[in-house]
Amino acid sequence: MLRRELEWLKRGPKARSTKQKARINRVHDLQATEFKQVQGKVDISTPSRRIGKKVIELTNVSKGYGRTLIKDFTYEFSPEDHIGISGGNGAGKSTLMDIITGRVQPDSGSVEIGSTIHIGYFDQHSEALLDALNENQRVIDYIKEVGEFVKIADGTQISASQMLERFLFPGNQQYAPIHMLSGGEKRRLFLLRVLMSAPNVLILDEPTNDLDVQTLSVLEEYLEDFTGCVIAVSHDRYFLDRTVDKIFAFEPGGNLRQYPGNYSVYLDYKKAEETPEVKQTKKKQQESDPAPLANKSRKLSSWQKREFEQLEGKIAQLETEKAEAEKALYHAPSGKVTQVQQLYEQLESLSKAIDTATERWLELSELES
């Protein structure tokens, strides 16, 4: 919500009314808020693995499906690389990740992986991979497949159960079947499994999808200290700004162009590269586009105003109910399987209701402004 509100604020709305001034004040309040979770803080300290000088080398790699997605791409990844991949939907970002990991073979060119390299791949289909497993498999058994005990970065040896607790899976939840987890919990579980395998090259394909705010925040901190190569595909500007120092941008014809710096720096480069003709064309399009005027003329109907006024209270009430359900789940007896399942279902239902109400509130607030 804060990110969306900041985008609204950047568009420079005129504070013509008390409500709009109040909305701006809410943005500032959100910025000052410390977000907390009842169950505690995610600890993402995981095992480490030595990385050699040779990481991944791509030489004249090309790939297409009816049209060229990647054309003669050559790059030698280094152990210190933190790279963000940018491009539109269908540009070839996931295809490039699949070529690097060996899931897909290039039409031409070669891919060489260093002998010490162990790749951890967290992709946008992680939940589908979990669903493909035995849905009755217990959470702790899924993690124990990686190892009963792991040695974390500081050399301490801890059990799989302790590792799960660090990722906000309390004892009673560890013995629940995977199908009882929400989508966000499944992705968090899969992320833990990936990191427990001690990768020295971490590939993240749209990692911000469906991860809860707290896990995402700690993942960003983890990547800052990660002593290995990171390759991240994401549309999330804020995530890329914090985690990468180089951008590979897909351009027409399957070409990948390299830009130094994070995503905001990349946008500055793109803006500076625009010719005066392109800037003039964009200006004319904006002046002739009737959509903004149409949007400005739209007003909230009386029933929409009532809905807008009621939504804030509704969202607050739902958040309270969710916090109470989380607390009840955290303290639920491990032997009460039916009770635990009911609480899981209640939490999932409340989360969906909160997301729906928040989306609607944002839609109405745009019209109201």
Which features would summarize this protein structure in a list?
single chain; 369 residues; alpha/beta; 6-stranded mixed beta sheet; 3-stranded antiparallel beta sheet; 15 helices; 11 strands; flat
Q: Could you characterize what this model shows?
A:
Helices cover about 50% and strands about 15% of the residues. The protein has 15 helices and 11 strands. The protein has helices at about 1-10, 20-30, 95-100, 125-130, 140-145, 160-165, 170-175, 185-195, 215-225, 235-245, 265-275, 275-290, 290-295, 300-330, 335-369, and strands at about 55-65, 70-75, 80-85, 110-115, 120, 150, 155-160, 200-205, 230-235, 245-250, 255-260. The strands form 3 sheets. Strands 5-8-9-3-10-11 form a 6-stranded mixed β-sheet, with helices on both faces.
What is the rounded distance between the termini? 16 Å
By DSSP (H or I, 4+ residues per run), the number of helices equals 15
Q: Major sheet: order of its strands?
A: 5-8-9-3-10-11
Low-pLDDT sequence parts: 290-297
Cα radius of gyration in angstroms: 24 Å
- Please summarize the sheet with the most strands: 6 strands, mixed
Order of helices and strands: HHEEEHEEHHEEHHHEHEHEEHHHHH
Q: What is the structural class?
A: alpha/beta
Task: Estimate the global geometry from the Cα principal axes.
Answer: flat
SSE topology:
Layout: H1 2-10, H2 18-32, E1 56-64, E2 68-77, E3 82-86, H3 93-101, E4 108-113, E5 119-122, H4 126-131, H5 139-144, E6 149-151, E7 157-159, H6 160-166, H7 171-174, H8 183-196, E8 201-205, H9 213-225, E9 229-233, H10 237-243, E10 246-251, E11 255-260, H11 263-273, H12 276-288, H13 291-297, H14 302-330, H15 337-368
